[in-house]
Amino acid sequence: MSTAILGRVVATERRPNTPHEFHFWTRLDAPVGIGTIVRVESDRPVNGVLPRTYGVVTEGFGYTDLATPLHDVLGADGDPALASAAPTERTEIRLYTAAVLRHVPEEPLQPVAMGTVHLASEADVQAALRMDGYASGPQRRGVPVGLYRAGGTEAAVHLDADFLLGPEAAHLSISGVSGLATKTSAVEWLLAGIFAHLPPSKGRVAAVCFNVKGPDLCFLDQPAAALADEDRAMYAALGIPAAPFGRVRYFAPWTAKGDRLATLRSHEALQDAVTPLTWGLRETLQYAEVLLNKDDVDAKADALIDFIKERVVDQPFTDPGFLERAHEVRSFSDLEQWFRDLLRGMESRNTEVWRTHHVATIRKVRNRLTNISTRCKGLVTDDGLVSDLPFKDAGFEDRTVYVVDVANLEEDAQDLVFARVVSQLREALEKRQLGVEQVVVFVDELNKYAPADGPDTYVRKMLLDIAERGRYLGLVLFGAQQFRSQVHRRVVGNSGTALFGRMDPDELATPGYQTLAPATKARLATLEKGQLMVRHPHFGQPIFVRFPRPAVLTGREGVERFPPVAERPLEEALTAQLRRLDPTITLGWVQDTLALAGDDEDGVLRARNRTVQARPDDVKAFFRAQLRKRATPEVAGRRAPAPLRTPASDDPYG
Amino acid sequence: MGPTYGPSEGAASVRAVLRALRDSGLTPRAAEAMLEVQRAADEPPRVEAAVPVEGAALEVRAVPGAPVVGFVAFLDGIQRSRVLAHAGPVPLVHGAVAAAVRLRTDRRPSTWESPVLSQRLYAPLGRLASDVVRTLAAALPLTDTESESTEGPEHPQELAARALTAVQRTRESAELTLVDAWVARGPGPLLVDGGISGSAAGSASDRVVGVVKSHRTLYAAPAALPLVLDLREGERTTAVRLHTPRRHAVATWYLRLRAPAARGPLFGLVRVEAALGDDLTERADRISRWLLAERAPVALPDARWDVMVYGVRECEQYLSAILR
After folding, report:
1. Handedness of CA A581, A587, A591, A593 (dihedral sign)
2. Under CATH, domain A167-277+387-559 is a member of which superfamily?
């Protein structure tokens, strides 16, 4: 246990030691700095035991015997060069303040005793961070978060899965400035650690990541372009394979035009793992509150929406007094027809009230609801076709990442996706029907979804609910944000674990960081990529660690290697999409088939969506049948079949 | 110096002395200022003529060449004396003494060999009750100050002054011990804070130089005194021979380390002591260059910064730290 003496504990009346803080001095060239973990050994037994104290350096001081800087100026005749040429160096001290991580034994809790200070060994780091209780042995449940490195010591730092994923505590908050804090990389690294180290006794785990900007999370299944030897060594030291995620499923809505998926992972070579994300009326109406703000929906409108949800949607509805026919509303277009029929009926009967609902309210609700499919086009379908995450029938797979790409959606639509996905996860976890026992939900830009100020939105309420109750269900929130101070304090306050990358100095000046020493803040403001400060319930103080570059392709590299498909004519896009199901499909076949269907673009897209979802054995026949379903009534009555087109000679797929 | 009794040197910390005094039935008194602070000047300032040994008469000489680093170590000693109790009119004085050589390596000082430490109780033992002496001797090292002066009044202040003299001699003895050790084993030129004429070996060695900062006695013929007081920065006087009955002969000269400007004639003025020898001019110039090189860093915030080199201040700080 005994290693070379690094320093010696000192205490004065003006700067006394306490049970939580102590001071020590070292040689000038001692390998100690902010964040270094040290061990104090006392030679005075308490209750027959020699006390040992572990601490982490939080502040450093250096000074000489000068009473004022002016004396140095005078002594050097105002010339700094002369000062450094003096034959004797002034007496100088390196004095450090350390925050106590752990006392051994824990009782009686006394001020840190005078004693010798030693650099912490690997075993000391384990003891200091209380990892000896969970990072090894039969109760092993440690999740590596990084390597502690200081003074030649390198030690793995583990988080306690019970406090990261629940049930004891849960949730993770990661903060830092954009571009330098490596927030996304840290989450990718941590997920890899969870997948590699979570013991079977803790159950199955999956991750749902919302890609809210750019291509950040679009290439998690692709190997990194280059991984340095040092990074590989860290992977090896922490027992995590230096490989991309083995199972990743992508979900993205269509673009508003519908010709391609709204994701930067649209390269043909990567399309197999991407599933369209489309919802119909029922899925959307359930979360209408997300899209309709209080100005839109007053109590009267709310009552009508509830009526529609409970009495109209997904069931036969008749009202001979007002409606010309029976309705079965299953899509937005059905709903629009229902509204039109109802308003026409009210108009013909010259009444302004239907079942206590005023015509103005009905018109307003019609306007707001039918407008949803326009605002969220590509995500919300008129015809009710649903292509969703596998919430039902235990569809989630163990150690799988589900990426929901909402980066190209409008803000409202992003909120809708977020609210519905998380709510569905919660419901499925409650019913134990998800297929996994724990789901990590990663949300970037948390200050946008759960802001400290601003309106109390549905999404924020939901995030608060997860933060406060999710751990009992296995629903764990990994939230990232640039400014922790701008996230609702109940969300960050409920995060058992917090990671900090490089921080903005202005952010560090906010009250949330007042417990950190100035030197610790200074280090936070200058952290390099790949360095984090970690707070965890078992760690008495924040600890600095390093982690390797993720073993996955970065968004920027991914977009260069797999350029997203450019906008192209519908026929070409359709050909590429259907060829993934049936390689014999050519542009010519598509052009001929569409010619038969006429110019109903929406109908073509609907047929494409149904075909892609159904993945039939006979793709051509199925697609044609879907086209016919929509096209036939119009074509038969009003339009002559278009002439067959000649396949283009420059068919890129033929 | 009188006979000593009791345990080994360095055992009589103030706390130990207080405990022993209580055991002896004496009542420790409230803490007072150290005797070194209380004591008034013990002799009046004076001017004393000395025999020139560098030329026929005292002259002023500009130190030739640029300052150059020459000293490898610094020696200093400190003392603290405090009356801790009275047995009737007899003061019982705790004296603490420390001396050390700080060796400079790569511009950083460290302690050469071991410092010399002493903490004792000083008193005229013959004036104390025998049982008190026995009790104290069993617990503490004692020094009898009676032999400092065999006759004289029993005025408590006079007795305290005798004790202070005894402490002072202990300090000088500690310093001389180190000087002798340095002459025997030291690796280069040593700067001693104070005179070196008390040491036979030191006063004869070309590796020991004494620097005297106080000038209660100015060694110059009255006519030559203005030469000393008007020295400019970087100038020295020629050397004179200094020899008193109980000390060894040395060469000494005055050197102005810093320009006095309006601060008075003694500002920045030091008296240097070195061994006599044939090459005195060359040696005195060389030693003066060494001393001029030691003007930086300045010894501030010490009040004597104009005449104290930083190595001595550092040594003094070290001694203050270890003499607890």
Report:
1. negative
2. P-loop containing nucleotide triphosphate hydrolases (3.40.50.300)
